[in-house]
Design brief:
The complex is a heterodimer of chains A (190) and B (438). Chain A has seven helices and four strands. Chain A is an alpha+beta fold and 190 residues long. The longest helix of chain A is centred in the N-terminal third of the chain and has 12 residues. Chain B is α/β, with parallel strands linked by helices and 438 residues long. Chain B has three domains: 209 residues, Rossmann fold (3-Layer(aba) Sandwich), CATH 3.40.50; 88 residues, Roll (Ubiquitin-like (UB roll)), CATH 3.10.20; 102 residues, de novo design (two linked rop proteins), CATH 1.20.1440. In chain B, the strands form two sheets. A four-stranded parallel β-sheet of chain B has the order 3-2-1-4, with helices on both faces. Chain B has a four-stranded mixed β-sheet with strand order 6-5-8-7. In chain B, strand 5 and strand 6 form a beta hairpin. Classes of the chains: A alpha+beta (190), B alpha/beta (438). Chains A and B meet through helix 2 and helix 5 of A and helix 7, strand 3, strand 5 and helix 13 of B. The complex binds flavin mononucleotide, iron/sulfur cluster (SF4) and FE2/S2 (inorganic) cluster.
Amino acid sequence: MARLTPENVQRARDTISLYPVARSALIPLLHMAQEQDGWLSEEAMVHVAELLELTPAEVYGTASFYDMLFTEPVGRYLVSICTNIACLLEGAYELLEHAGSTLGVRPGSTTPDELFTLEEVECIADCGRAPCLAVNWRFFGDVTPDGFDRLVARLRAGELSDEVPPHGTLSRVRRTVGLPARAEGGRERR
Amino acid sequence: MTTEVAPIVTRRLAAQEPWTLQSYLSDGGYGALRKALTMPRQEVMAEVDRANLLGRGGAGFPAGRKWSMLRKAEPVYLVVNGDESEPATFKDHLLIERDPHQIVEGTLITAYAIGAAQAFIYVRGEFALGLERMIQAVEDAYGHGVIGANIFGSGFSVDLVVHPGAGAYICGDETALLESLEGKRGFPRIKPPYYPAAIGLYGAPTVVNNVETMSNIPWIVLNGGDAFAALGTETATGTRMFAVAGRVNRPGAYEVELGKNTFRDLVYDPKLGGGVRDGRELKAFVPGGASSFWFGPERLDFSLDESKVKGEGGSMMGSGSVIVLDDTTCAVRAAWRLVRFFHKESCGQCTPCREGSGWLEKIMRRIESGHGRPQDLELLMDVCDNISPGVSWPSRWPPNMTTICPLGPSIPPPVVSSLGMFRDEYLVHVKEGGCPFG
Ligand SMILES: Cc1cc2nc3c(=O)[nH]c(=O)nc-3n(C[C@H](O)[C@H](O)[C@H](O)COP(=O)(O)O)c2cc1C
Ligand code: SF4
Ligand code: FES
């Protein structure tokens, strides 16, 4: 719940350098902050504003527009169940209800152990495997109620930690090419 | 019977780890880029023009023409739209995850043709795996020397950045996409200017093209625009991916030849949709994404030709998604869910879109849950008319617009279609105080 770590500040600078205009790096930087803390704290957003020479209000204004960016804490696992048309036709609302009772929370809330946040979402473009859901944006298709319970049990047991990194981590592959050259020790050589 | 043609964009999807550079190279990958870089830029553009490749993102604008409309100024940008979020559309997702190099190669060729030194691929934020594959592809392509300075010694240089979205359907609209790429909220821009080709990213002339559009470019360069135009019909050239979803036996994304095949092929061909599930009857289908007017079974034989679907059908193929509703599906519930989507995703800038979608959602919900009133049917049409004046059933294309972006007029189609086709079903909901489908 903090400012970006020195390592992430370096990553942020690298990311900014890829764009003709610094502000374009805002969403990537917000994802980075969310990867660090699991959500976007005020301190992190103020720090991002400093790095981009924006006002905190500009950063917050953008952050609050996008569904994937959370300005309040969420669980380690964000369970996003699609109820849009293709999934609706395959029982998505029944699945959502089942998920609520398995996790003991209503959509939009987090379990007391802070492990799971349940949310209802729009189409996640995996409709060939309806009904489907995502956990931290890793996709699971053709989900039955039993299948859901097994998935939750495996997540609880930590069996899927490779497939499903903690909330906030999108790509684990990082851009390395075309970044500013740097001397040993991480200082930038301009 | 569906025509048998060799696939273009899905050609490699079933290969072993088709997303790797090694797999791509073993298939002749980046050969089209090598060839393009030996051609004058105008010649590359002319091939794409001859192909008559219509944009695959929804609006169906000819790619070659779009490129030639660029305002003459420096710099020029290329932005590839991988934000795919239209309900029941899931073709770009597949291309991004399984053949990212094909998109990268198409992007590089296009950048060369239009003279862009900087390109962006905007990937929907939710596509975590897609982002990983795309970023890896770009890394590897730099390593292989096909992105960066002086590619293949041609003197052409370009940089490419993979940019993540953060969850907002509206960012699929090209002007909202550019706002988002500039680090702002995804508010569609007020027109004029009508085209990013005049004023786009950072105010510079910009081409925005869809991921599937880009995926066709390497093939067109290798085989020629005429070979592409020889597929399909005069008005609907080449092949296209269709996401077939809903109550079919084999939901999936399939590439078929345009013009010569029909919606019936997509739904019933055993190699495609495989027919309606459980031997049920097809009640209606949504021919082109949530924003399109619905078709009844009598229109199954419409050919996959945007000009026909619009002209004779009064609808559109739009995003390339076909949603099949069977006779166990409640039309009111299906339409309500689509309206709810638009209400949630409206960016709120225009009153008819913001308020109208809210009204429609509320009235539809009340009818579906059995609390509707007879006059609600009129009211629904009234609200639709406020959003898109003159909207009627049977539908006409294009709908009138009162809003900044086409999301506004996208809201009435599910309401107007379901009401036009299944008025009795609405009346039963109202009369019996509940949904007859349970
Ligand atoms: C609300 C809305 C959502 C859209 N979503 C997408 C999308 O997800 N992907 C896409 O390529 N085009 C989408 N479009 C169309 C784009 O504005 C634009 O026409 C397209 O990206 C241009 O590429 P193309 O000419 O290659 O099709 C959307 C348009 C609107 C109005
Ligand atoms: S039509 Fe709707 S989504 Fe489009 S700009 Fe207006 S309010 Fe926003
Ligand atoms: S409708 Fe659920 S993933 Fe598309």
